[in-house]
Design a protein that fits this description.
The protein is mostly helical and about 375 residues long. It has one domain. Helix 1 packs across helix 11, helix 5 packs antiparallel against helix 6 and helix 6 packs across helix 9.
Length: about 375
């Protein structure tokens, strides 16, 4: 891990990528504050606030809500960053071997951080690899290793990963784990049970890293498209078509293979991947083509220290901030109601987490691995 102090040069950067990364991290950090869950208090049922809060809760099993897209956003945007980072390192004089060594080191650190976060959350040594950092260590490495292949080859590999996943779940022969789309009775749960890392309550599985590698590969392909000499509107149209095709395919096949995020079924990967590409395409059109970009810095500065703020919020930073401000903000609960006071408290916690990123940004401090 390194602390980098340097000026920010926008230059030829695609501001939409900075915005999309920052928005993704902002929403992820917001979930750590319990802001969205506080919107689903019983007294808000039937209101707009309740509907918004519900979209920021994971589906219990089958289906897709907005919050189920956050991790695909994250996996995808890491893939988008790979070709840009590679090109920058080549410009700085590094060769492919040196960059590959850095990628392996970074993948190991992501896996280590993901495992450590699981241990911290459980308060003991456990072997859970279902969280986003542990998953990312795999998708990042695999996407990098095939980055030099043709676009067609990368696309084929991404769908082969989905096909292998589909075959393993549908054809797994062990009794009790041969029900591909039933919680805790599928191949993914069986695999985690072999090393004591099964998540039998949330039903998340470590094998998700394999199918969701497609998200990161599609991010690499998106970056390669955006770095090409094609006209901006042509790039936008390609992204638009790709996003629509993936999304339609995912929903159209859902009667055959249900959309389930917790085991990352092929239909989930396609539908969420389609939404993700469309989200970036719209950001690219609005910010880099139409030049509506003055408002994007609020989110972009969160993405500039994405790893730091994720770890800080996850390992106790959120609770620390809450313990300081809650005695004051919750004191008005008698006037506005406990649920409203909780929402206000969570908003302030989120703002202070954002302000930490802003403080680092103003001092040109960026913590990276």
């Amino acid at each position: 891990m390194s602390v980098i102090e340097k000026p920010i040069h926008t230059g030829d950067r695609l501001i939409s990528l900075d915005f999309f990364r920052g928005l993704t991290m902002f929403l992820l950090v917001a979930s750590f504050t319990n802001l969205f869950s506080s919107l689903t208090a019983p007294e808000y049922e039937g209101t707009f606030l309740y509907s918004v809060g519900l979209q920021f809760q994971h589906v219990a099993w089958e289906g897709l809500r907005f919050y189920d897209l956050i991790q695909p956003f994250f996996m995808f945007i890491v893939g988008v960053a790979i070709p840009y980072s590679y090109a920058n390192r080549i410009k700085r004089g590094l060769n492919h071997g040196q960059i590959r060594k850095h990628v392996f080191e970074r993948a190991f650190l992501l896996l280590l951080f993901g495992w450590a976060l699981a241990c911290i959350s459980e308060g003991k040594i456990v072997f859970y690899f279902q969280n986003v950092l542990a998953q990312l260590s795999v998708t990042y490495l695999l996407a990098f290793l095939i980055m030099k292949k043709s676009a067609t080859t990368q696309i084929i590999i991404s769908f082969l990963l989905l096909a292998v996943t589909e075959a393993l779940y549908r054809g797994f022969p062990i009794e009790g784990f041969n029900h591909p789309f039933v919680p805790n009775e599928n191949f993914g749960t069986w695999l985690d049970l072999q090393y004591g890392g099964a998540n039998l309550v949330g039903h998340w599985v470590s094998f998700n890293a394999i199918p969701t590698t497609a998200h990161t590969i599609w991010g690499v392909l998106t970056a390669q498209l955006l770095m090409s000499d094609r006209q901006p509107m042509r790039k936008f149209k390609v992204l638009l078509i790709a996003g629509v095709v993936l999304m339609v395919a995912g929903y159209a096949l859902s009667p055959v293979t249900p959309i389930i995020k917790r085991i990352c079924t092929s239909t989930f990967v396609m539908a969420s991947g389609g939404w993700t590409i469309l989200a970036l395409a719209f950001s690219y059109w609005l910010i880099d083509i139409k030049k509506y970009k003055n408002w994007t810095l609020f989110f972009a500065i969160v993405g500039m220290n994405s790893l730091f703020i994720y770890l800080f919020a996850h390992v106790g930073g959120t609770g620390l901030i809450r313990s300081v401000i809650a005695p004051f903000t919750m004191s008005v609960s008698g006037l506005i109601g406990e649920s409203a006071a909780k929402i206000g408290t969570n908003f302030i916690v989120l703002f202070l987490l954002w302000y930490i990123c802003y403080w680092l940004y103003k001092r040109r401090i960026f913590i990276k691995i």
